[in-house]
Amino acid sequence: LRGKYLELIAGASEEGALEDLRVQAVGKKGEISLKMRELGKMSPEERQVAGPALNALKDEINAALAAKKAALADAALNERLKTEWLDVTLPTRPMRQGTIHPISQVTEEITAIFAEMGFTVAEGPQIDTDWYNFDALNIPGHHPARAEMDTFYMHRAEGDERAPHVLRTHTSPVQIRHMEKNGAPCRVIAPGRVYRADYDQTHTPMFHQVEGLAIDRDISMANLKWVLEEFFSAFFEIDGIKTRFRASHFPFTEPSAEVDIQCSWEDGQLKIGEGDGWLEVLGSGMVHPKVLQAAGVNPDEWQGFAFGMGIDRISMLKYGIPDLRAFFDSDLRWLRHYGFAS
Ligand code: PHE
């Protein structure tokens, strides 16, 4: 019995087989257990010899089972270590991390600067009705500004009676939506995408503007000038940038001004914030009473300024980028060249 089991145990090649052997030998109905039960039928003399011998055999078999089990586990582990190795000294594959698009970075910078002056962010839809984009801003149907803005109109099937929609041509409709909802006083900026059918070195059909709107009881153009000079000085990181206000015309502001920032051209190098040159950067003015009225704000009680600035344009100036279209070409080489991607 001893020889038979020790041999079988030694030859077992997996844990399951060992368990079967255990049951066969020392399990409740195992061969050795049955033999132990027969001890009762023996004479005392016989029992004195056979009892200890059977016990010793049982212990020996159990020990052999345990030892074999440990050996099998060892072998399995060694096998895994041999096949599942990993060279932790190998260099990693180069991994490129995505980066924030320069226009988004600039938008965040702009938002942070205006936030310090108490402006919060307002938003509006990029597809809006022509009422918000034009009529409410005092641009009636026949007004030449509609044509000038190269508007993208949404197609309507014949018989579709819904209000005409356009891709907003500027962020000014957000003025109306914000005042309609929140009334006066208010102090917001509205950055976002705008659309015009135009394409050349400085125009893309989709571009970005940031609208500014401050309404209170006695806000004036002087406040506007201070806010803008504060903004440009912070944005271009140059103290005391001067602005020049040129009389202009927008249907939604009266008076209106186009605003230039100070610059110089030396050896074909553009420098912002010095010299006696001027660069146009935005349109602005005092919000027209009709616009306040359209948004449900009483023009006898409230007044304020609004401005609209091209985000792409001031980004080009800040980073010295000559062609606006490159911003939206998704060319990684270009993004890396300007340090916008890794
Ligand atoms: N909406 C004008 C534009 O797109 C800019 C502007 C905004 C002018 C607000 C005056 C006041 O050209």
From TrEMBL:
Record-linked CDD domains: PheRS_alpha_core
Reaction catalyzed: tRNA(Phe) + L-phenylalanine + ATP = L-phenylalanyl-tRNA(Phe) + AMP + diphosphate + H(+)
Superkingdom of origin organism: Bacteria
Protein's UniProt keywords contain Lyase: no
Pfam families listed in its UniProt record: Phe_tRNA-synt_N (PF02912), tRNA-synt_2d (PF01409)
GO MF annotation, one: magnesium ion binding
Coiled coil: none
UniProt entry keywords in alphabetical sequence: Aminoacyl-tRNA synthetase, ATP-binding, Cytoplasm, Ligase, Magnesium, Metal-binding, Nucleotide-binding, Protein biosynthesis
The record's free-text note on cofactor binding: Binds 2 magnesium ions per tetramer.
Residue ranges constituting the Aminoacyl-transfer RNA synthetases class-II family profile domain according to the UniProt record: 104-342
Localization per Swiss-Prot or TrEMBL: Cytoplasm
Top enzyme category: ligase
Cofactor(s) demanded: Mg(2+)
Keyword Magnesium: yes
Listed GO biological process terms: phenylalanyl-tRNA aminoacylation
GO cellular component: cytoplasm
Entry's EC annotation: 6.1.1.20
Residues that hold Mg(2+) according to the record: E254
InterPro entries, per database record: aa-tRNA-synth_II, aa-tRNA-synth_II/BPL/LPL, Phe-tRNA-synth_IIc_asu, Phe-tRNA_ligase_II_N, Phe_tRNA_ligase_alpha1_bac, Phenylalanyl-tRNA_Synthase, tRNA-bd_arm
Family under the similarity heading: Belongs to the class-II aminoacyl-tRNA synthetase family. Phe-tRNA synthetase alpha subunit type 1 subfamily.
Subunit record text: Tetramer of two alpha and two beta subunits.
UniProt protein name: Phenylalanine--tRNA ligase alpha subunit
Gene giving rise to this polypeptide: pheS
